[in-house]
Amino acid sequence: METFLIIVIAVLGLVAFAQIVRVFELSSDLKGKEDSNDVNEKDNNIQGILMGIFGILLVGGFTWMWIGYDKVLLPVSASEHGVEIDNLMWISMAVIIAVFFITQPILFGFTMKFRGIKNRKAVYMEHNNKLEFIWTIVPAVVLACLIIYGLTTWSDVMNPANETEEPMVIEVYAQQFKWTARYAGDDNALGYANVRMIEGVNSLGVDVNDVNSLDDVITSELHLPVGKPVLLKFRSQDVIHSAYLPHFRVQMNCVPGTNTQFQFTPSVTTVDIRKEQKVIDKVARINEIRAEKGEDTYEYDYFLLCNKICGSAHYNMQMKIVVETQEEYEQWMSEQKTFADAL
């Protein structure tokens, strides 16, 4: 009831304010004063100048943010296909930014230059075929080229035709609010799994009667050998998640009841990415902040994140990824238990 009364009072207050404004307008008319709503040349000049200043601030602010935020962008791609993704993004951004720097000064410049001035009349132009051609055909051609380039890149990424080596198969299992990896083992074939088979320690619902399941390896951390193609197969237990590996330029939805997949080849080890100057500078800035708060030092790592808002702990749904040499990977794998041993 209290909330209702507050709303009623607020509405009545707005009505009263509108009536007071209306009374002032009527009293001005009766006294023969100039209507405050009439626009004069002084108003046009002020608005024109303000629009010009706003345009300068807009372009300047964009430039400042672009330079300032460059240091927080992702470092070089850590996968082979990621180079193509980055090229596509930077070409698209170059076109967008070029158009921005062309159109915005024109927009605000015209607004300021052609503001209302006494005794100056606007030119009436019914139609101009040349202008229509330019602003229709040119954007259409540019967009068509970008779309074709994007589709070609996406097709190459999703259908790697030049891979001569069989990819290593790993299942990435999503659930609120954690990730679990299941390696296919020596036979490189994942055993059958279904959420209806989840019971006890078998938290992934792996079929214990499937012979391909026995050598599967279940881990809470994802280790990948550098230079070896990897086929990630995604499965979700509860809601839609989105497997996001930003350093590898990989993202794929994990949909309950449906299997999705993404293949890529890691190209930069965790040790090597930490030597990138951009990464070194970022880690230094983070550790400076953490030192002020008395927190432990931070070490740069690859991570698998969830890019869907999947619930209250969505922000904390992540899994560490380690890219290492083949020898280091084999050493780590030899320390892991198979599904059969874990039962």
Describe the overall structure.
The protein is an alpha+beta fold and 343 residues long. The chain is 45% helix and 16% strand. The strands form 2 sheets. Strands 3-2-1-5-8 form a 5-stranded mixed sheet, with no helix packed on it. Strands 4-10-9-6-7 form a 5-stranded mixed sheet. Helix 2 (41-69) packs antiparallel against helix 3 and helix 3 (82-113) runs antiparallel to helix 4. The longest helix has 32 residues, at 82-113. The protein starts with a helix and ends with a helix. The mean pLDDT is 88. It is found in: Cell membrane; Membrane. Residues 165-335 form the Cytochrome oxidase subunit II copper A binding domain. It comes from Owenweeksia hongkongensis (strain DSM 17368 / CIP 108786 / JCM 12287 / NRRL B-23963 / UST20020801).
Shape: elongated
Q: Count the E strands.
A: 10
Distance between the amino and carboxyl termini:
60 Å
**What is the name of the CATH superfamily of the largest domain?**
Cupredoxins -  blue copper proteins
In the CATH scheme, what's the topology name of the largest domain?
Immunoglobulin-like
- The Rg value, from CA coordinates, equals 30 Å
Relative helix content? 40-55%
Q: How many distinct folded domains? A: 2
Q: Class of the largest domain, according to the CATH hierarchy?
A: Mainly Beta
Specify the number of helices.
8
Work out the oligomeric state of the chains in this entry. single chain
Order of helices and strands: HHHHEEEEEEEEHHEEHH
User: In what range is the share of β-strand residues?
Assistant: 15-25%
Largest sheet: 5 strands, mixed
In round numbers, the mean pLDDT is: 88
Uncertain regions: pLDDT < 50 for 5+ in a row?
none
The largest beta-sheet arranges its strands as: 3-2-1-5-8
Q: Return the CATH architecture of the largest domain.
A: Sandwich
Structural class by secondary-structure content: alpha+beta
Domain Cytochrome oxidase subunit II transmembrane region profile: 65-161
Pfam family, one: COX2_TM
Main location: membrane
Subcellular location: Cell membrane; Membrane
